[in-house]
């Protein structure tokens, strides 16, 4: 597959658009609206993440343990990362030393608290893939909130 060259003007336009949306969300007083919007956005990222994870794992994970194994396998083998998900009973714990948002990594956005909500929505959606019950992501620490690292806990019912 050939790679399409994206014009610099289009990149700058998208950076400005992302910045405007982020700023607008940050100025809103309705936290429930911001949370719902960003968590829904995270669900779209989850679809792509799950697809890449399943392709790398070689099959569809059938349990939370297999899902964590599949995510960690991709993080280790493909992304060459050294931080992994760990299960502790009915919760999974994850800590990142750098912001994991693709928009931030690509230089299209700066870390911010709203993107952290997007990540929480993504993690809830990913874990819902292997759970029958409620899944809830907690943002413990976040670079987008000014912390030195990101830390998430996903609570789930199998």
Strand order of the largest sheet: 1-2-4-3
Report the average pLDDT across residues.
92
Largest sheet: 4 strands, antiparallel
Helix and strand element order:
HHHEEHHEE
CATH-defined topology: Muramoyl-pentapeptide Carboxypeptidase, domain 2
Please identify the oligomeric state. Answer: single chain
Distance between the termini: 39 Å
CATH class: Alpha Beta
User: How large, in whole angstroms, is the Cα Rg?
Assistant: 16 Å
| Count of DSSP strands | 4
Q: How would you classify the helix and strand content by structural class? A: alpha+beta
The number of helical segments is 5
Fourth-level CATH superfamily: Trafficking protein particle complex subunit 3
Number of individual domains: 1
The CATH architecture assignment turns out to be 2-Layer Sandwich
Strand content: 5-15%
């Amino acid at each position: 597959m050939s790679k399409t060259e994206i014009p610099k003007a289009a990149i700058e336009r998208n950076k400005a658009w992302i910045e405007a949306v982020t700023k607008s969300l940050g100025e809103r007083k309705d936290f429930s609206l911001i949370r719902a919007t960003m968590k829904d956005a995270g669900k779209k990222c989850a679809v792509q993440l799950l697809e890449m994870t399943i392709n790398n794992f070689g099959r569809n994970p059938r349990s939370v343990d297999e899902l964590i194994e599949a995510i960690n396998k991709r993080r280790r083998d493909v992304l060459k990362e050294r931080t992994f998900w760990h299960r502790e009973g009915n919760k999974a714990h994850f800590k990142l030393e750098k912001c994991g948002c693709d928009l931030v990594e690509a230089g299209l956005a700066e870390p911010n608290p709203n993107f952290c909500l997007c990540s929480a929505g993504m993690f809830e959606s990913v874990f819902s893939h292997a759970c029958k019950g409620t899944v809830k992501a907690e943002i413990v620490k976040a670079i987008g909130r000014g912390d030195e690292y990101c830390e998430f806990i996903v609570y789930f019912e199998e």
